[in-house]
């Protein structure tokens, strides 16, 4: 398979948003209320991505298989002062038909390598407590669960995210 990872430009923001929307509608089925998932439009993340990529210090990359965009990762220096000096993986998503093929690992390691070039060597991300497959994936690639949690309400349901860290000792 011809796999490439390309840095996303501002023109790619609608594509990034589409990848997230399509992924969320499938990946979070049974975890986030279905009516909320069904209401997600492809353009939902255009504004947040525009901010993160222009003013938020984040970068984004898109993974292509046979020249078809199938996944994305958004990352950069932590935006949270409590995690100053850390790198943050803000999001890592694949279109549903491209999951469980090793592409997520490629994207994650690529983002971590890019941050290492900027002298960031410790990383964190947040994973939904009910998303056991994602949590197992992160643990398999070397991330460790912490006691840090983040809660948010979506579609009338309170959701909990756990912070995972990857620390270079």
Automatic annotation (TrEMBL):
InterPro entries per UniProt: Acyl_CoA_acyltransferase, GNAT_dom, YpeA/RimI_acetyltransf
Alphabetical list of SUPFAM superfamilies matching this protein: Acyl-CoA N-acyltransferases (Nat)
GO molecular function, one term: acyltransferase activity, transferring groups other than amino-acyl groups
Record Gene3D superfamilies: 3.40.630.30
Pfam families: Acetyltransf_1 (PF00583)
Domain N-acetyltransferase per the UniProt entry, residue ranges: 3-169
This protein's UniProt keywords: Acyltransferase, Transferase
Name of the featured protein: GNAT family N-acetyltransferase
């Amino acid at each position: 398979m011809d796999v490439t990872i390309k840095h996303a430009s501002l023109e790619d923001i609608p594509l990034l948003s589409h990848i997230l929307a399509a992924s969320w509608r499938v990946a979070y089925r049974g975890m986030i209320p279905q009516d909320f998932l069904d209401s997600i439009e492809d353009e939902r993340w255009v504004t947040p991505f525009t901010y993160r990529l222009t003013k938020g210090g984040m970068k984004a990359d898109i993974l292509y298989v046979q020249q078809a965009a199938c996944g994305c990762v958004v990352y950069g220096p932590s935006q949270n002062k409590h995690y100053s000096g850390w790198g943050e993986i803000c999001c890592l998503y694949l279109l549903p038909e491209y999951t469980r093929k090793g592409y997520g690992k490629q994207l994650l390691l690529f983002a971590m390598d890019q941050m290492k070039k900027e002298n960031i060597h410790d990383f964190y991300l947040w994973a939904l407590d009910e998303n056991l497959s994602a949590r197992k994936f992160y643990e398999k690639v070397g991330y460790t669960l912490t006691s840090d949690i983040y809660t948010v309400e979506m579609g009338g349901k309170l959701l909990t995210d756990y912070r995972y860290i990857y620390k270079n000792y």
